[in-house]
Amino acid sequence: MQYPSKTIEAAVEELSRLPGIGRKTALRLALHLLREPETAAENLGSAIVSLRRNTRYCTSCGNISDSDTCAICADLRRDASLLCVVEDCKDVIAIENTNQFKGRYHVLGGLIDPLHGIGPSHLNLDSLFVRLDDGDCRELIFAFSATIEGDTTAFFISRKIENKSIRISNIARGIPVGSDLEFTDEVTLARSFLNRVEFMTEKEGAG
After folding, report:
1. Residue 127 is inside which H or E element, if any?
2. How far apart are CA 127 and CA 131, in angstroms?
3. Contact (CB, 8 A) for 30 and 8
4. Domain 6-54 carries which CATH code?
5. Nearest-CA neighbor of 7 among 25, 31, 43?
6. Which of 33, 62, 107, 196 makes the best surface tag, with the fewest CB within 10 Å?
7. pLDDT tens per residue, range 110-169
8. Could you tell me which CATH number the domain at 70-171 has?
9. How many CB atoms lie within 10 A of CB 138?
10. 23-80 confidence digits (pLDDT tens)
């Protein structure tokens, strides 16, 4: 692709390094910034620099934070006996957006993946086991993607704490709302049968 200036080319080169951003999209973004007031580019640049310099990770759960302790861990209204283990910080954001979970989290920073050289020592597991040793947790919830890596990680953790009186659960897996049964893959369909729940009418649910 030919560029009208070296400055545009350099901007496209850096923007295209971002995940999901190809060179055409990067060019559109660069041209958009050129059309905007100079302050818009300055604000974007300052926000990115601040993101890199000032973002911290919670010393307790590993979630993104502005301080040593994230807002979730510092919230005394959260149920400390419920601990949800996730792969990444984006999973915390996704779950929080549902407003359905009122416990706390533990971010592993990845999943066990031997094929890519990622073992238990590469994950935030030691601090998880320390938290579980404190005795506050009564239920550990695995909220991993339905992959071999997710299942492997869940199995590893469960084996490590099998001697503790902690309930271990997995988020339900099944057919997404609005999807057609005929297009559902066999694994998801099988899990839907294994994780089936009792049918309730609206009247029963209201009671």
Report:
1. helix 126-133
2. 6
3. yes
4. 1.10.8.420
5. 31
6. 196
7. 999 999 999 999 999 999 999 999 888 999 999 998 889 999 999 999 999 999 999 999
8. 3.40.1360.10
9. 13
10. 999 999 999 999 999 999 999 999 999 999 999 999 999 999 999 999 999 999 999 9
